[in-house]
């Protein structure tokens, strides 16, 4: 069955950086839009960033624009989230997700909808101390 495995989370001070990775297996990776969501305690899961199958189109939540960068490595079935200038409010469990979207060139608002994603990872904890 499809597996998405996140890594790279941890504890960092405000202003610091982290790079999350998501390794996918048992799916045709290049057919999927990939995304990152996050969920803080007591909050609903929220969209962070998404990237099209080719990597040519990306979409970000306003709260992370200019600080987070999503990228993908199709030959290695991996998607990354580079996070800089981290803030305490970025503290959350970060989840990788996959949405079957073959041939879609441009990411739309659909990417922000968690129910559109077929597969999810188990999450990795990011904690930003003030």
What is the secondary structure topology, with strand pairs?
Blueprint: E1 3-7, E2 10-13, E3 18-25, E4 32-39, E5 46-51, E6 58-60, E7 68-73, E8 78-83, E9 92-100, E10 119-120, E11 124-129
Parallel strand pairs: 2-11
Antiparallel strand pairs: 1-3, 3-8, 4-5, 4-9, 5-6, 7-8, 9-10, 9-11
Overview of the structural elements:
The protein starts with a strand and ends with a strand. The protein has strands at 3-7, 10-13, 18-25, 32-39, 46-51, 58-60, 68-73, 78-83, 92-100, 119-120, 124-129. The model has no long low-confidence stretch (mean pLDDT 96). It has no helices and 11 strands. Strands 2, 4, 5, 6, 9, 10 and 11 form a 7-stranded mixed sheet that branches. It is globular. β4 and β5 (46-51) form a beta hairpin. The protein has 130 residues and is mainly beta.
